[in-house]
Amino acid sequence: MTSLHISNCRIHNSDATSVSIENGVITALDSEAPASTDTINAKGALLLPGLIDLYSKANNISSEAKAAAHGGISMMCTSPDSKPMAEAPADIKSILSASEKAGAAQVLPLGTLTSELKGEQLANMHGLIEAGCVALSNGRAPIKNSLVMRRLMEYAATHNITVFLTPQDQALAANGLMHEGPTATRLGLAGIPETAETIALSQQILLAELTGCKVHISHISCARSVDMIRDAKQREINISADAAIANLLYTDQAVNGYNSCYFVEPPLRSEQDRQALLAGVKEGLLAISSNHKAHEQADKKATFADAETGMSILDTFLPMLMLLQDEGITVTELLNAVTALPAQILNLETGIAIGKPANLVLFNSEDNQSCSEPDFLSCGSNSPVLNQSIRGKVLLTVSNGTIAYQQD
Amino acid sequence: MQIQYDPNQVQLTKDGRLKHFLTTEGLSKELLTEILDTADSFISTQERAVKKVPLLRGKTVVNLFFENSTRTRSTFELAAKRLSADILNLDIARSATSKGETLMDTLWNLEAMYSDMFVVRHAHSGAAHFIAEQVTPGVAIINAGDGRHAHPTQAMLDMLTIRRHKGQIEGQTVAIVGDILHSRVARSQIHALKTLGAKEVRVVGPATLVPKEMADMGAKVHYHMETGLKDADVVIMLRLQKERMSDALLPSEGEYFKLYGLTEEKLALAKPDAIVMHPGPINRGVEIDSAVADGQQSVILNQVSYGIAVRMAVMSMAMSGQQSEREQEASV
Q1: I need a labelling partner for B299 at 20 to 30 A (CA). Which of A354, A376, B13, B67 fits?
Q2: What is the CATH classification number for the domain harbouring B46?
Q3: Is B130's Cβ below 8 Å from some Cβ in A?
Q4: Closest to A187 (Cβ–Cβ): which among B102, B126, B130?
Q5: d(CA A310, CA A262)
Q6: B287-331 confidence digits (pLDDT tens)
């Protein structure tokens, strides 16, 4: 399909009510549908820029790209430990071709930062970017020491490569299963202290400053980390950060009853931490990522310590984001966190305007989305809203001018 | 999004009777007292020549120990036998289950053999809870220790010990000394003591072994024996595992004994009629001096004999709770 016309829609922060798309680009607002163009009548639904997700693990590129489009995502970064592992140009080629074949959300692979993600030797960084990676990451695997961290940042800076990092001091987090605090103490689950994150983060910020490398911090979880990122930006360090949607919606209280659905990395923290992350989103400091990780039921049906970590988020990403309006975050602030900021981090274009790439999502905020198992296009339904219904429903997702998802 | 959670949704029937025994947390004073009263009544049967009662006749109890413990397992076995149940002992090292057959598969197989009760010990916190809630809800689960979380039958036998030796739990000042961080016994004791009306519960040890968040559970945190034992009615010593030294939590056994080991001198800080307890097995010369362990104020051996009565009590109560729930469901 090369042309598409969406009529009768409400566009956020605009008076226009229709959009024309040709060859992947928005060509007109408020114009009549040209003859022989496919037309979609939005019936008054809300048209938003398509979401850009900064981090999902995809064990199956095709199903997870479809799940992403189902959740309003036009473009998604996949973690380097997805399947296949993004460690060689041939892997990147196969990821990109699987993405194209799926015809859903466009996959933007994050390549491996170190060889086999071991944190010891630099991966072929330049080659991975040349093959089509948008940035490099080590997943949640640690970097061996400060020297390797410094070197990889220096090398990345040389070639203008963006590095995605997750801040966690392995020794302090060792054996930890949840946020260290009263709930962990009562449940008898080993805690992960706030300092496991902030000590690692301070290393990353200081080395980013030293090397001038462009660094993005994936999923911060602590109030103190928000302050550290704010301070680093004020000092004009080339750094950005996001919070995972789970950390914005839930706290460590959710782990009561040993519900392994809430066993996530980074851990769900205190209410004070959650409020600080929300404030960070509100002030435009933090992007929001899905931090999606799908699992089969069996992987979660185990004792808490034996269960796999992660939540399946993609299918419900936009409705879950919209829940944050109840926390005082406006739609404009939300869109900034899932479209404008990620676009800036990845050097992409976003927005609904003539000449912009046609990445769009049509959302009905009144309707409810059912979340029973068959409703998940992802290979995992390990979702906190499983078997519930959630307010709001994605009707259509467009990725680079083609339909990535359309409600039946 | 607030997520409400109440442990009793899992362990109690709709009309508030025990159907699993997972934790002392959240149980009412009445229910805890019922356990103690029932146990008391079994103590008299234990002193008879014929010790068996027919409460669990025809029922199958499976001792499911994913973590080794000869002592606890044998008291459960004796308790089940004295209730006339058939008992099957399974020692499943964790390595065996991780070799392909999952925990769930093992449990479903046992359920298919028409088991009525699982006595579960597991190294992971929440294991008993997970089995009761998600795996075999129709089988009564008795938690025989899960990770650092709970050891409710041990806590209840400790409550029985205090009640029998001090007359009542109300008004007592109880000091729990040692490795609180890793102790499921301490956590279960704190919940039971608070509910049963103890005046003050103290946890005593160095900050590496006593998380400050214990205060949120209602315990007072003390880092020194001088203040921790002062005027206590009950002193409970916990076992110190050797690994704590290599985990950089303590410098040495010698320094630990010097600062936190219970000697006659330190015990003199407590009330003159204070009792000394220990869940066992004791490390003489590490957390407790032999003179105290074997002394006048020690009730350590009495604890062991009350253990069988308490386990008989919770096993019979949970079995009858399961039965009444099944009857109610059938009549609906």
Answers
A1: B67
A2: 3.40.50.1370
A3: yes
A4: B126
A5: 8
A6: 999 999 999 999 999 998 899 999 999 999 999 999 998 888 888
State the pTM of this model. 0.94
A182 has a chain B CB within 8 A of its CB: yes
Specify the number of domains making up chain B.
Answer: 2
Q: Does residue A118 form part of some domain?
A: yes
Alpha carbon B128 to its chain centroid, in Å, reads 13
CB contact under 8 A, A257 and B127: no
Query: Is position B332 within any domain?
Result: no
Domain that holds residue A243: 48-353+368-390
Residues B27 and B146 in one domain: yes
How high is the mean pLDDT of chain B? 92
Please indicate, yes or no, if residue A358 is contained in any of the structural domains.
Answer: no
**Mean pLDDT throughout A158-163?**
98
Please check whether residue B273 lies inside any domain of the structure. yes
Give residue B110's pLDDT band: very low, low, confident or very high (50, 70, 90). Answer: confident
Q: What is the band of B1 on the pLDDT scale with cuts at 50, 70, 90?
A: low
Question: How many C-beta atoms surround the C-beta of residue A133 within 10 A?
Answer: 28
pLDDT at A31: 87
CB contact under 8 A, B104 and A323: no
Contact at CB, A182 and B217, closer than 8 angstroms: yes
B21 & B115 share domain: yes
Which residues partner with A364 through β-bridges? A393
CA angle A208, A214, A219 (to 5 degrees): 85
Reported confidence tier of residue B198, pLDDT bands at 50, 70, 90:
very high
- B331 belongs to a structural domain: no
pLDDT tens digits along B10-59? 999 999 999 999 999 999 999 999 999 999 999 987 777 777 899 999 99
Q: How many domains are there within chain A? A: 1
Q: Which residues lie below 8 Å from residue A326, measured CB to CB, with a gap of 6+?
A: none
Exposure of B304 in the CB half-sphere (CA atoms within 13 A)? 9
Domain for residue B330, yes or no? no
For the residues of A91-149, what is the DSSP string, one character each?
HHHHHHHHHHHHTSSEEEEEEESBGGG-SSSB--HHHHHHTT-SEEE-TTPPPS-HHHH
CATH number at residue A335: 3.20.20.140
Instruction: pLDDT band for B93, please (50, 70, 90 cuts).
Output: low
Q: Are residues B273 and B144 in the same domain?
A: no
A13 belongs to a structural domain: no
CA distance A394 to A106: 17
For the CA atoms of chain A, what is the radius of gyration? 20
Note whether residue A404 is domain-resident. no
CB B192 within 8 A of CB B156: yes
B138 and B209 co-located in one domain = no
Chain B residue at shortest CA distance from A326: B1
Instruction: Give me the mean pLDDT over the A373-388 stretch.
Output: 96
What range does the domain containing B261 cover?
152-299
B204 membership: H or E segment, kind and range: strand B200-204
State the ipTM, two decimals.
0.92
pLDDT in tens, A297-324: 888 888 999 999 999 999 999 999 999 9
- Taking the CA of residue B214 and the nearest CA in chain A, the distance in Å comes to 7
The whole-angstrom distance between A172's CA and the closest CA on chain B is 12
